[in-house]
Automatic annotation (TrEMBL):
The record marks D148 as: Raises pKa of active site His. This is Phosphoribosylglycinamide formyltransferase. (6R)-10-formyltetrahydrofolate binds at R68, M93, R94, I95, L96, N110. InterPro entries: Formyl_transf_N, Formyl_transf_N_sf, GART, GART_AS.
């Protein structure tokens, strides 16, 4: 069973999943492996980590496509080369077309850095601090056509501390992301 992970930047969640798949021997235990890492940015730092692990990578620069649909079609073609049982969005910063979401219905997940349904969208940590939240966190969810609104698969909570900057809170949440995302992916792929 192949997992394809989509990234746009540092890919720390992708790295956590790759490391968990190796440490947890997913290939032997579940017949599962991370088959490819695909990015919409050729300068995504996570691509280098994937290459270090000899995981096939691809980068499709969305700016070279003349429509969202054209980009998504090329992205689907690249992803489908690996016949994925699961497509994992990990810091993938693109809004996906309904056609893309439909194509991967039931096998598409994402991680969002807030305790959904609070703070869908961007700048979640700054918004939580400005709202005076005492707690923040992250949510792993299935992806549906409505942004950040699919079935929740897991969440983790962290305290918002006095004087927290968005960066400090982001780091605290990210550490939890790296804990819950690999566990959800393994649960889904082992099923
Ligand atoms: C993280 O905050 C994640 O929740 C969001 O993208 C950010 C960077 O993730 N989806 P990564 O380090 O690229 O995995």
């Amino acid at each position: 069973k192949n997992i394809v992970i989509l990234i746009s930047g540092s890919g720390s969640n992708m790295a956590a999943i790759v490391n968990a798949s190796l440490k947890g021997r997913w290939a032997e235990r579940h017949g599962a492996r991370v088959a490819a890492v695909v990015s919409n940015r050729s300068d995504a730092a996570g691509l280098a980590m994937a290459r270090e692990h000899r995981i096939p990578t691809a980068a499709l620069d969305h700016k070279t496509f003349d429509s969202r649909e054209a980009f998504d079609a090329a992205l689907m073609a690249e992803i489908d080369r690996h016949h994925p049982a699961l497509v994992v969005l990990a810091g993938f910063m693109r809004i996906l077309t309904p056609g893309f979401v439909q194509h991967y219905a039931g096998r598409l997940v994402n991680i969002h850095p807030s305790l959904l349904p609070a703070f869908p969208g961007l700048h979640t940590h700054r918004r939580a601090i400005e709202a005076g939240c005492r707690f923040a966190g992250c949510t792993v969810h299935r992806v549906t056509a409505e942004l950040d609104h699919g079935e929740y698969l897991d969440q983790a909570v962290v305290p918002v501390l006095p004087g927290d900057t968005p960066e400090a809170l982001a780091a605290r949440v990210l550490a939890q992301e790296h804990q819950i995302y690999p566990k959800v992916v393994e649960r889904l792929i082992a099923a």
